[in-house]
Amino acid sequence: MHDVAVVGAGPSGLFLALALVRRGVDVVVLERRGGPRVHSRAIGVHAPSLAALERLGVLDPVLAAGVRIDRGIVRIDGAVAASLDFAAVPAPHPFVLSVPQVATERTLRGELATRAPDALRGGVQVERFERRSGSVAVLGRTARGDALRVDARYVVGADGPLSTVRAAARIRDTVHEYPYRYVMGDLVDGTDEGPVAVLHLHQQGIVESFPLPGGKRRWVTHLPDSGTVAAATRADSGETNDPAVAALLSRLIRERTGLTTDPGGASMTSVFGVRRRSVPTMGDGRMLVIGDAAHEVSPIGGQGMNLGWLDAAALAEVLPELLASGAGAEERASALLRRFSRTRLRSAGRAARVAEFNMAMGRPAARPGFAIRTGVARAAAAGVLQDRLARMFTMHGL
Question: Does residue 118 share a domain with residue 30?
Fold first, then answer.
């Protein structure tokens, strides 16, 4: 009997497992994939997450693998229209770290393997759950097809938007699809922007670019109307390295910014839509959910991975107390979980509103609307609003 079974070894699941192991909790992590990811995925690590990674004892290798972004600028027709400095953010780490998710997962996996060598089990397909009075049985199959049963006092789903744990716990989710589609890619950095985040405002849609380690740069922009792009870009592609998508991205960058990029140097491409997923609670008895399993927000703004880490950090504070509770402590346990759920869902709601603001500011617009948006961007990055924007974009307070 394990104390906690975590389903999913993405960033949230690995963080939670490591945080619990450091507290002496017996944890097993069940992951469908047989090995680590290949492509970069999420890249932005914000100030609250940097502090959480420091408490976990893994900040130094994460910092060493990334690029520190201290400043963001807005360009219109190539000229700087606004600038945002993160140095004034009242946090131990007043910057955003750009580091591929594969690198942070590698660090978390390595530290977990050192502290609990048998905790992570890859190639496991979780199929169903059986609830008992004081535990949950997780039933599934190994990569070889052998039946697997894991018993734990608590089960935590860190298994993404289509969470099997959420479904089994009968936690209702509400999904809102936004009418936006984006194309993204990691290309060789041929700009002279350095370690600066750059937002190019354009009537056909914002073009975002962020520095990456290894001389790369992440680019994201709106897809044109579906009638003008290849059929292959009309459905979410996941993260691949598609030459046709890279060529499309480079063309859109050139048309909207005047900058030339090399599609042949792409190391990742993706086409994706955006949605918001919310739940009324993050737990039902001994089955809990964190990260995208609980609240999915638009990736525009780079908040999703950070929300998952902050969920994990908060839950790691609660679970040891739940595990230490004896018989008859159900009311106390329920109150602790309600408080955890309420606090984290409130943070997710704020993050979703920030993401909606980001999407609204960057969507295609007719000339009058674009002129208004340009004025808002110039005004918002000046004077007293600058500190508030810096806090918002570094997830301060979440």
Answer: yes
Q: Is 14 in contact with 107 (CB distance < 8 Å)?
A: no
365 domain residue, yes or no:
no
Q: What would the pLDDT profile of 196-221 be if each residue is shown by its tens digit?
A: 999 999 999 999 999 999 999 999 99
Distance (Å) of CA 267 to CA 55, 192, 214, 243, 321: 32, 20, 11, 10, 44
Please report how the helices 330-362 and 304-324 are oriented relative to each other, as an axis angle in degrees rounded to 10: 180
Compute the average pLDDT of residues 349-368: 86
- Domains contained in the chain, number: 2
Mean predicted confidence (pLDDT) in 39-62: 92
Domain co-membership, 168 together with 183: no
Q: What is the pLDDT of residue 392?
A: 55
Q: Which amino acid is at 94?
A: P
| Phi–psi pair at 10, nearest 5 degrees | -80, -165
In the predicted structure, residue 227 carries a pLDDT above the cut 80: no
Residues 348 and 256 in one domain: no
User: In whole angstroms, what is the distance from residue 130 CA to residue 137 CA?
Assistant: 5
DSSP 8-class letter at 394: T
- SS3 assignment, position 48: helix
Q: Is residue 366 situated within a structural domain?
A: no
Residue 103 C-beta-side C-alpha neighbours within 13 Å: 21
- CATH number, domain containing residue 198: 3.30.70.2450
Q: Considering the domain boundaries, does residue 123 fall inside one? A: yes
pLDDT score at 232: 47
pLDDT at 381 over 70: no
Q: Are residues 189 and 249 located together in one domain of the fold? A: yes
Residue 89 tokens, joined: 């953010």
Range of the domain at 263: 177-274
Q: What is the Cα–Cα distance from 360 to 370, expressed in whole angstroms?
A: 11
